[in-house]
Amino acid sequence: MKKIISVLLAAVMVCTAAVMFAGCGDGNYPVTVANITIDKEPAGIVVLDPSAADIISYMSYDGKIVGRSTEVDQSYLAVAPDFGTAANPNADSIIESGAQVVFANDKINADTVKTLEEKKIKVIKMSLADTPKELETNYTTIGKILGGAVTGLEKGTSSYQKLIEHMDKLKIEAASSTASTALDTACYLYVDDGSLRVMTSGTYVDMLIGYTGAVNVAVNIADGNVDVNTLRIANPNYIFYSDEQTLNAIQSDDVLSKLTAITSGKVLQISNTEITRQGLTALSTLEKMINFMHPELDKKSTSDEAAAQTATQAAQPAQTATEAATQAAQAATQAATEAPHSEADRYDIKITDDLVLKKGDEDSEDVKDVWELQHRLWNLDYIIGVDNVTGYYGDKTEQAVKDYQKAAGLEETGIADNKTIVSLFMSDAPKAVLPEGVTNDE
Question: What mean pLDDT do residues 1-16 have?
């Protein structure tokens, strides 16, 4: 099976019991998780929980995945065969796959667990990471299970640190995008058992809100129950909500419906899927939130689009034709005279003379650079669909590079050599022309 690596952009699980390690040989195995001992590094795994799948993929262990559940619907894992639902997977298919470890959750039925264990297949039940500390623990725990007490621990630690470093970078970028000194405030609302609730201090969602640069107004709400008077006084600038049921509950409340965020339209749905997958999805969710709060940061915007927007606004009836022409001319002049510059820093990629990326690149040395290359190609519409930003340099990436090279007047090799990479990350890099009716949103 072709190895698929996904580095950036969903929910992480935390082991339900403590992890102990008994070292031998290189110190990596055996690994004991509660009463389950794994004697050697698993060569094949089945992932039934979508949250576990997302973190495993982020850590570049998805090459081990030989099967998945229906709920594991990430497009970059679609190549793995479907073995049924997370609650009732096909045990015979799992056994035939040759997997040594199955990542499940509490939904899996007891009979299936018994059948798999009789075949010496280890079933690891995971639970959702509700806090940043649990999130870190999950990274290191999964690393130890799949890579060992030494190598896996190091990989889990470095992967978590890389996630946090990227979130920090997005937060700094958001903070530098506005001249306003006013502090943004926000909250996340959802419905649970028919009651409207809010994510409070110390939760994973609270962490995400913090990385947008905003303050969670629910930090002093202890139990998560919505206190409408507290929210009325805090009057958050932005409200994130889980689904339509939640939005309807907000809009039907006499107090909440009058909050500034509601009346000004500064509300955004962040689904349960987006807040319960904490690998690639964690980054794409955070970027979605930041871009909503700071639309000027959307990397898919161009100077020409900004000039067109200014011209449109200038043409409003309240302004004269002269004012509209003046503003449009100023915007066009600014766009035309802005000196081309590298945007590599915005993409967290270090362009060196020897940096060359090509089809098949997927190891730990190249995967971050491949992801940033794909991100840039997506921003310029050479890659269609954010799901194709995977960190794996395959056929689609090779063709996208060829298409860019053609547009930029470079030799069409499909290999991202130094000349191609430098050109691609310049602010004046040519965008692709999308066919009529085709969009390239998230």
Answer: 32
**In whole angstroms, what is the distance from residue 250 CA to residue 303 CA?**
37
Task: Please state the rounded mean pLDDT for residues 262-287.
Answer: 94
Cα–Cα dist 76/85, whole Å: 18
Question: SS3 for 7?
Answer: coil
The string of DSSP letters for 15-61 reads ESS-EEE---TTTT--EEETTEEE-S--S-EEE--HHHHHHHHHTT-
pLDDT at 307: 39
CA distances from residue 398 to 180, 194, 377, 385, 391 in whole angstroms, order as listed: 42, 49, 11, 15, 13
Task: Give CA separation, 159 vs 14, 113, 128, in Å.
Answer: 15, 30, 18
Least confident residue range of 142-156, 381-395, 406-420: 381-395
Question: Closest Cα to residue 327, out of 338, 342, 317, 312?
Answer: 312
Mean pLDDT for all residues in the chain:
83
Give the pLDDT score at 35.
Answer: 80
Residue in this structure with the two tokens 């698929």, named with its chain if needed: 4
Dihedral, CA of residue 399, residue 297, residue 158 and residue 362, to nearest 10: 0
CA atoms within 13 A on the CB side of 393: 22
Q: How many CB atoms sit inside 10 A of residue 202's CB? A: 13
In tens, the pLDDT along 344-362 reads 877 778 888 888 999 888 6
Tell me the H-state helices in 176-302: 204-211, 228-234, 244-251, 260-263, 272-275, 280-293
